[in-house]
Amino acid sequence: MRTPALTLCCLLAVACGGDFSNDDLEFQNALPQREDLAAKLPDSARSSQGVRTRGQALSRAQVLGGPSELALQAYAAGTQFNTDVDGLLALLEVFRHVPPTTREPDRRVWGPFPADGHPGHELRFVMERQGSDFGYLLQVRPTGGGEAAWWTYVPGTFKADGGIRKGEGSLAMDLKEARARGFEPQDANLVERLDIRYQTKVLPSSVELLVSSLGGALPLARYASRRTPEGLGEMSFRLPGEDLVPGGLLETLDIVARWTPDGRGVLVLNILDGDAKGAQYTECWDTRTRITFMQRNWDFITPTEGDRRTCPDVSALDPQP
Amino acid sequence: MLLSTAAHADTLHRFALIAGNDTGGADTRPLSYARDDARKMHDLLTRLGGVSPADAKLLLDDDAKDFLVALSELEQRAREAQARGERTALFVYYSGHAKDGALRMGASRLAFDALKRRLADAPVDIRIAILDSCRSGALTRTKGARKAPAFDVESGAARDARGVVILTSSAADEDSQESDALGGSYFSHHLASGLLGDADRSGDGRVTLFEAYSHAYARTVADTADSSAGPQHPTFSYDLAGNGDLVLTDLRASAEGLVVPGSAPAGSYYFVDPGGLVVAELDKASDAERRVALAPGTYRVKRRLSDRLRIGEVEVARGRTTILQEPRFKDAPFSDDPVKGAMLDRGAWWTFGLTGGFQSFFDPQTRQSLFLSVPLFGAEAELHDYFRRDWVWGFDAAVGGTEGVLSLPTLAGPAYRYSVVNVGTSLTAEWPVGRFSPFVGVRVAYLVMGRKFDDAAFPDQRFAMVSPGLATGARFRLTRRLNLTARSRLQYLQYTVDAQRSLGFWELAALLTYEP
Q: CA triplet A120, A123, A129: central angle to 5 degrees?
């Protein structure tokens, strides 16, 4: 009788504890999810795969009733945007469903863990909290290194607004530092740094992605995505150094594309610099990505083609007063 | 009347020392009813035995020193009575432990020999000692005392009886046994029942010493014959100067009482108090009127037949004699026996039941955002009288759950399902009073709390911990096999995840148990 009772007591003692923590939930809530930051693309955007994201397509003639190359290019930009965001968030996703290794007041630490695909390196994830402000660091060090050997690969911040992942945040991936430390990224060979800023506390939610190329080989690319709960999506991006118009100057293009869940859309292209500075082109397309309306501000003979009423109402994406 | 000849009953000044002690030191198990037996005997002697309350001393759980001090005080008063020319008698009753030739009064001892010398030297004319304790028969194995036959006692009206009379509940090598159904020891119960009237074989309304002894002897042997401890044989010795029988109680000394008329059917009658205890019995012969000197109160009366019970109720009013009306009794099955614990003297027994209740933490923030208040439903098993009588070893398991919405400083809105699994074991002590059995005890539980979020972005969480606590409540006997229990628990829980926090929670529950 005594032995089973003692055994039972020991088993119960071992089985005590757990991860029932409100603080853990608040820390986990400060981490962005892919679905929070990804651009919402219509199903028809799949046909944009393989389309290059540079501006040479603009040199083709736009034909009413013909395919909207610009729409496909906007979708392609959204797909690339999502790929870049995924690549960054995938690094954080590991820690979302794993209980922290160390709990301290207003601080959580996961790891160290061996870095998959990077022999000789190990990772840890550190989160700290001050009121509603959270900061987090994905850090790397050579295996067995001391506390001072940690360097930051992905820093991030989040200011919580009380709701489920509602707030303002930022995160970045320093690929230049990684290469300098011998922690070679597996993708993004030409990228030096990724920066993401986002806000989810007011509608429409918005995400901005800055891509810095390695050694300035490519101009700084800026992508911004917004969306509404009803499924409206917006992709805005700036393409510098495009030779769009014959002449001695390169153009800088500013593109804002908006679409509905069923695939209709409207795009406004502004030429900010270059030989055609000040030119603006507006285009609408239907669910099959065929052009239904065009407007050119430089064409005084036929400034518009098609029916403007075919353009979808995407005013919900306009900035709220 | 106590210790008086029938002819001189009114000339004897009677003194009584009555002691009961449930404890007997480290090497003995506590008794349950020794003090109750003493109280009953004190009540009986002052009500029917001719002892005035001022001349009676009742000692409960007092030690040997107190006992001897009280004895000295009574002896002093007896001297004063003798100085006034009165005849005197001293009655000493003790219920409790005895072992190794001594009475055990708590941690103290009083040797049999010392007690007997003290009695022999007492400045009174007649001394009677009644010892209800294990192996008390050793006191009667003393040189000079004659062991009386069980029933062959002449009850003639002898005069001028003097000396020492000793009654013991068991022989020198026997244990004295208690009974839950009787609420006392077998010997004291049958002695008291006899003094109330059952022992009045002559029907003259007086119960003599020999009548009481022979009655208690026969009934004690009969009741204990089949017990696990074996039959218990009371002993009786006397070295009286004369061969007189002595009247112990006068059933007509008190105006109130119960008369069982001669027309009432013959057989065994049991008089049960409101607490379910048999306070008196009566073995009635055909056409014989019998008197039972019950104290004022309401009693259930049971007459046992071969195939059923006859049950009635009678109220004994103060200052009046009540006539028992047996024809008004009703037939009842054996399962409706009004005697408390009629089924109890049978060792350990199980009950099984279902429970419903509610659990909530004391700390408001905890019960709002961490461990929610939940209804609980479960099953329990209880093992009664295993460790000792009226102790209950319980085993319980319960589950509960509720829906919640998280509301934290930086996170509000996630909906989740909160659940609790609760298993435990408890040890409680009951104090049965009629159908009610209040109880209090300790419990240790193992709790597993968990929550599962609707939003898959938040992981499922779990916490498990051992929780000690207290339990109290009352069990109510609905029927012979069904019990309804109301219970509360106070438990302690150490929370260890976000921080080390000491938490407390309570549970209220109702439990319906069935006894197979």
A: 160
